[in-house]
Sequence to fold (199 residues):
Amino acid sequence: MKARPAGARYRVAVTDSRKPSDSGMTLKSVALFSLVAGLLSIAAPLAAQEAVPAGLLTEVCLPYANRAQTFENSIRAARALEFRRPVADTAPLDEWASEITMVSNDGTWRVTIEEGTVEHGDQAVYEVSCAISSSRASARELANLGRRAFNDTRYWTTAPANPWRWERRSASPGEYGLAVEVAEQAGERPTLTVRGSYY
Fold:
């Protein structure tokens, strides 16, 4: 993704106590709460290794991709879940940073939060994404978590040709979209990515 434009609405200042932006009070946030409720309903029977990504989904990825939570507040939410920057990543976070990777204290789980403008054909799209991966979770295991979290057909659709991708039903698909997808690249950890696209 391209670096955050100078006029971007989110500024990283992880040491201050700024309140979340007003976008968190929009109707989209109300819809988000119904999504989170579905995830919370499966939290109790989750195995320990699934509780971590479920927490990331409900506290970090879904609020961020839905723009109910800013970049900086998503970093705070990850820290509250005991995630930190990698030990080797000692450079100060740039004031206008648009990407950060954080790891769990035991080094098993990783979350990458990113935003920026991407080109889709002749159209520029602003995307925010949150990718979860683990050295102990296979693509199939992440997909199983996705199916449990996003199997409500009232809110999500999935195509038979791509059962590891879920798209949020939207009343304004020409304005924004929300999708969750599990992907596996050769030589890399499989990821479960939540991506919000704003046209």
